[in-house]
Amino acid sequence: MSRDAFSYDPQDAGDVRDTSSRASVRPRRPVPPDTRESRNPAPEVPGRTNGIVARREQHAPRDERSHSSRAHYVRDRAYLLRESEMHSLREVGKFRVIAVSDLAKYAYGGNSERMDKDIRRLARQSLVTDKTVEISQKKTLRIVTLTKTGHRLLKNTNQVPDDQPIYHGLVKPREVKHDADLYRLYQKEIARIERGGGRPVRVLLDYELKRNLNHDLALLGPDRDDPSAKERIAEKHGLQIVNGKIPVPDLRVEYETPELELRHVDLELATRDYRPRAMAEKASAGFSLYGRSEDASRLRRVLDEREITARILTL
Question: 149, 125, 161, 147: which is closest to 21 by C-alpha?
Fold first, then answer.
C-alpha cells in the first residue's frame, strides 16, 4: 500500500571513532526493471550454490565471531556489540520497523532465544525500541525500531553504504502491520533472486522513491504537467505513467544478476482494502503484487472480475 510521503529523518552529526572499516559504495547507474518473465521463480544456476549459501550466512551471521563484542564509538560513548546485534541494527534501520517474529526467522535462523537476548542488549544501550502494539481489537504485534541513537550509530560508523537509506522511530502506528510485513516481503523476493544466482544490493522504501521523484517533478516548474516531461522523469526513476499518474511501489529491491548487471524489481503489498482501480494501476505499472494468505483469494477474485492480467503472490 503506497502512501503519501512522510517526514524525512535527518542524519545526526557527531564526532565518530570506530574499529570497523567503511562500508563500500558501488557506483550507481540506472537500474533496469525486471521483466514479467524474470519474476517467475528462477532455476538454480550451476556453480553459484556456494555463493548463495555464503550470502545467506551474511544475512544471518551465526559463526563464532558473532558471539564476540566489538567497541563502536560515537562521540565519547562506546557501544559493545556482537556482529549479530549489528546485523539486526542494519536490518531494522533499512525497513524502519520489523516484527520480532520475522527478525528471528530470517536474521537468526529461527533462534528466538538468541534474538531476544540480542534485542534486550540493544534496548539496554538505547539503540532500539522493543514494543508491542495493538493492530486490531484482538491482535497485538511485537515490533522493533531504531532509536535516534541507533540511527546515529549506523550512519556515523559507516555500517551501511552511503546510498542505503535508514530510518528510526515509528511514524504511522496505524500502518505498522503493513510496514512490518515489508521485511517478510523482501525476504520472499531475495530468495527468488538468489535462486537465480543474483545478489541483493540495495532496498528502497516508497518514501525514498517518492521523495526523489517529487524532487525532480518540482524542478520541472511550469512544465510539471507536460506529458512528455513527466514521462522523462518517470523513466529516469524506473517508473511508468498510468492514467496520467506515476504509481510508486511499496518497496524496490535492486540486485546484481549473475552477469553482473544491475536490475530492480518493484513490489507492492496489496490488502483486502484495495480498490480494483488501484490494483489495476499497480499491475499496469509492472509491480509484482503480493498479498497476505488471508487476503490472497479475495484479491485474485478482484483481478479475475476486472480482467486484470496479474498474479497475486502469497506472502
Answer: 161
